[in-house]
DNA sequence: TGACCTGCATCAGGATTGGTGATTGGCCGC
DNA sequence: GCGGCCAATCACCAATCCTGATGCAGGTCA
């Protein structure tokens, strides 16, 4: 068994095709075919079912893939360990974040990290989850913080923290700031929500539906800050994650209302490549981010929880 | 980087010599030298300090070794996983046990395991820890249950459970069966103990010394059952692990006395090769053994604890 | 102190391996 | 039924690795 064969296995599994997998790892289709065959022979088990339209992993292929990613991850860990041994952390980190976390959470992390490790180049990209996971899979991003979605082929997923959803209105619309609200017993809402591609949207829709919450109008805005700005200047309202709006507790530009019913949570998960470990710099940034995120989420749960 | 290089790295680290490592993995000294050199170049770090009397790992070598064992272990896990996928567990398991556990603990495990997996061949070896760890390192044993000792180069160590030491005498020597005893306030003892090579002996000696426990005579017997037999037929006494003597609770061939002072514990650890995972059969046997051991240890602590 | 031994590094040659590009054959959609 | 797509196979070539011999450094013993 060779490492190259494991890398090939991973590529084929993730691409579902010998040919495209071969391209991905800069090999030829014939070489790919031969190596997978050799691997199957050395393991004495068929890993993929071939068809004229590509390949699908067998049960054994699934298992082997899972292990192979772990082998490669450990393998990469060798280099990470050695790099971590250096007293001086260097290199560059690319991180992807969803808009929710870019308002409040990330700035202190970046400030602290940059002062702790001045020789690390930081790149940050703000986007929605689909784009971010594509970025991680393509290797453009080291890791990304996203809401939980499906289709994580080739990615390692770690749950980071859970946040609360908050009902947000303009100030002085008849409710006290920070007063709790039961959405099931309220006059029909004018809601600004993200579009149907957004991961939170599905959860919100399903809550609205199962609890029969009356909605007068929905406006779709895939722009967080615009949404908040609109809410502040009109009688439109929104439902937003605590991390996004906790800054309004002081500013009072908007009034925040903990939601007693229905219970709605926002999860944040970390995605990273399944078969490569984070670089030392990325790992450290990740730890800082995790720490700050749970600090903020904790505060949200305490002060904006129902 | 190649798997072969990692195997070489592991061998060199554990043997402390290119030449003997080469023999171990059926390679030549020159090939070994070249591969290690290639690995060092690909990692851009020196892994071993060469000397005319052998090699010693650098700090980087230590780290790389640790990771390499994990990589190889994961790698072996691929085959284990696939074997585990078979509905029918087969193969053979070789396990090493110290005498303490062979009196009471192992029989029910073997009985259960043999009936659950009738097609697995079981080999068991009873010996003292040094011999057992040598057996595991040589690959003769899949794993072994031993008391904690040093020198675990090349072995993965897992703590299994903790047991109590019990003071054992012949029946009717003036103490009630199961009555607790404080060894610090007792007439000078005639003790039968294992020899100085035994892992428990050092702990017992140090306890005797630090608590100034008076000892009239010590007889060294490296044979557990002979020790117990002698104790049953004379005024010699011994200190024995709960697992070993719990069978006497019913038989009353010997009287058992929980020790209130000094506090003495016996630990059991599992050792297995660091860079190969257990075979499915070995894993299952291991689980049964763990379960039974903690059942017995629990009972010892409950009924023979101080 | 000098002969000897041990252990690693190096070298050149040779065998094995793996990769390449072209070709074949099977299946699907048009 | 034809072209497109995909995997399997083959023969050839290149890279790699292994081998056995040799060199060199340090330690040991007489």
Walk me through the structure.
The structure is a homodimer of 306-residue chains. The first copy, chain A, is of the alpha/beta class and 306 residues long. Chain A has three domains: 3-78, Orthogonal Bundle (Arc Repressor Mutant, subunit A), CATH 1.10.10.10; 83-154 and 274-304, Periplasmic binding protein-like II (D-Maltodextrin-Binding Protein, domain 2); 162-266, D-Maltodextrin-Binding Protein, domain 2, CATH 3.40.190. Helices cover 46% and strands 25% of the residues of chain A. Chain A has twelve helices and twelve strands. In chain A, strands 3, 4, 5, 6, 7, 8, 9, 10, 11 and 12 form a ten-stranded mixed sheet that branches. In chain A, strands 1-2 form a two-stranded antiparallel ribbon. In chain A, helix 1 packs across helix 2, helix 2 (18-24) crosses helix 3 and helix 6 (106-116) runs antiparallel to helix 12. At the A-B interface, helix 4 of A face helix 4 of B.
Principal-axis shape of chain A: globular
Q: What is the CATH top level name of the largest domain in chain A?
A: Alpha Beta
Q: What's the quaternary structure here?
A: homodimer
CATH topology of the largest domain in chain A: D-Maltodextrin-Binding Protein, domain 2
Tally of DSSP helical segments of chain A: 12
**Low-pLDDT windows of residues of chain A:** none
What is the tally of beta strands of chain A? 12
- Find the structural class of chain A using helix and strand composition: alpha/beta
Number of domains of chain A: 3
Largest interface: A-B, 22 and 22 residues
The Cα radius of gyration of chain A reads 23 Å
* CATH architecture assignment of the largest domain in chain A: 3-Layer(aba) Sandwich
Distance between the termini of chain A: 55 Å
Q: What is the percentage of strand-forming residues of chain A? A: 15-25%
Order of helices and strands of chain A: HHHEEHEHHEHEEEEHEHEHHEEH
